[in-house]
């Protein structure tokens, strides 16, 4: 990607680390069952953006110069059994993932400012994210992702769901191997949060479907859902990165606030792009949210000044012409602009949260991610 406004490419400081990401992830999800292996690895073939692992690595680097403080419990890192061998058959075919490793892993000369545990965390975040995509594409009856047929289309719903479950299982194994109860709790909470967010989206409990009236509660509900569905993973993994680095509560909280605000902005922009960018550019169908009956931020803001939209919201844009009409009303309103402005507020908060970190390439990378989120087209 081209360097951002400050001439910094956020990827640059972690580029070396990222090179091995796909290989490591594929190693973690290997299965002796050839079909399970294929379905589980399907979304690792079209290389994703690796935004979550990149943020974990950048956060790990950006905090590496800060003072550490030991946490109260014994973390038993030293006791970890590293003798687990790769299994080629089904029985107990757990991933190989040594927790502590020398600074050369699989021939990769590692940046010493990133701890092996933080590197493992980066991989875990991508596993959880990919699992959620496999399930999401079943729920959304998607047809394409990253420019290819989605897994539910390529392999069917049953295998897509099971592959997602398998990824969560392997993510849990990798998490357990960190031998860090607080980090385990955080990432386990993320998995629960993803489901809670998805449920909030499935069944809106603040809108009376027969008489939907606009109120601020609709926005509050949407933002809570957005936190659970999108920002929870990013924020709690940034928090976990700081915890693994043994940093003070202030640093841990700053990392969390950065991730939370960036994550909220990320999803707001996602919901905006669904209105503003073609499916060709997105690599997945555009305008999908209205088709799914979802009222996201641009529509909620448009609804505030166009109360007629309520009728369409109530019936989830299901009648002929509803989607088209809602889309036109949103595009003509200031809903898209308001969504962009709110996303901008969030990225400003994200940058502010880490402004006290010592200057480093990684810190500028994190700040540049804020502009990248606002500029992205897919
Ligand atoms: C993409 O949203 C989906 C998510 C961010 C999370 C979906 C969560 C679940 C399906 C719950 C199950 C969770 C796990 C951990 C297995 P989107 O549909 O708005 O985005 P898209 O346009 O990329 O499909
Ligand atoms: Mg979807
Ligand atoms: Mg979805």
From TrEMBL:
Full-sequence portion shown in this chain: 76 to 453 of 453
Region ranges (Disordered): 68-115
Family: Belongs to the FPP/GGPP synthase family.
Annotated GO biological process: alcohol biosynthetic process; isoprenoid biosynthetic process; mycotoxin biosynthetic process; ubiquinone biosynthetic process
Lineage, uppermost ranks: Eukaryota, Fungi, Dikarya, Ascomycota, Pezizomycotina
Keywords, in A-Z order: Isoprene biosynthesis, Magnesium, Metal-binding, Transferase
Comp. bias (Polar residues): 82-115
Cellular component GO terms held in the UniProt record: transferase complex
Protein name (record): Dimethylallyltranstransferase
Source organism, top-level taxon: Eukaryota
GO terms assigned for molecular function: metal ion binding; prenyltransferase activity
Cofactor or coenzyme needed: Mg(2+)
Keyword Phosphoprotein recorded: no
């Amino acid at each position: 990607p081209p360097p951002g406004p400050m001439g910094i490419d956020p990827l640059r400081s972690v580029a070396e680390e990222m090179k091995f990401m796909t290989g490591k992830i594929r190693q973690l999800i290997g299965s002796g069952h050839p079909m399970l292996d294929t379905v589980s690895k399907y979304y690792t073939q079209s290389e994703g953006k690796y935004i979550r692992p990149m943020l974990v690595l950048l956060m790990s680097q950006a905090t590496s110069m800060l003072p550490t403080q030991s946490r109260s419990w014994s973390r038993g890192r030293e006791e970890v059994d590293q003798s687990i061998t790769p299994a080629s058959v089904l029985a107990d075919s757990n991933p190989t993932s040594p927790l502590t490793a020398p600074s050369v892993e699989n021939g990769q000369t590692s940046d010493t400012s990133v701890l092996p545990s933080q590197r493992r965390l980066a991989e875990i975040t991508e596993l959880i994210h990919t699992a959620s995509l496999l399930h999401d594409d079943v729920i959304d009856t998607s047809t394409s992702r990253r420019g290819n047929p989605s897994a539910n289309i390529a392999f069917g719903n049953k295998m897509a769901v099971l592959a997602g479950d398998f990824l969560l299982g392997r993510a849990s194994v990798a998490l357990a191997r960190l031998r860090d109860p607080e980090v385990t709790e955080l990432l386990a909470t993320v998995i629960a949060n993803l489901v809670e967010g998805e449920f909030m989206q499935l069944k809106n409990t603040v809108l009376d479907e027969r008489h939907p009236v606009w109120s601020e509660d609709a926005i509050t509900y949407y933002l809570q859902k957005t936190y659970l569905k999108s920002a929870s993973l990013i924020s709690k993994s940034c928090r976990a990165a700081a915890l693994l680095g043994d940093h003070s509560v202030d640093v841990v909280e700053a990392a969390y606030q950065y991730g939370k605000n960036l994550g909220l902005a990320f999803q707001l922009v996602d919901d905006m792009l669904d209105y503003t960018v073609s499916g060709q550019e997105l690599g997945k169908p555009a305008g999908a949210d209205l088709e799914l009956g979802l009222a996201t931020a641009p529509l909620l803001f448009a609804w505030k000044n166009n109360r007629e939209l309520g009728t369409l919201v109530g019936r989830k844009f299901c009648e002929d012409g509803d989607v088209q009409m809602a889309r036109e009303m949103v595009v003509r309103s200031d809903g898209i602009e308001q969504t962009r402005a709110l996303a901008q507020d969030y990225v400003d908060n994200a940058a502010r949260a880490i402004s006290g970190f010592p200057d480093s390439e990684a810190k500028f990378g994190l700040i540049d991610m804020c502009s990248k989120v606002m500029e992205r087209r897919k």
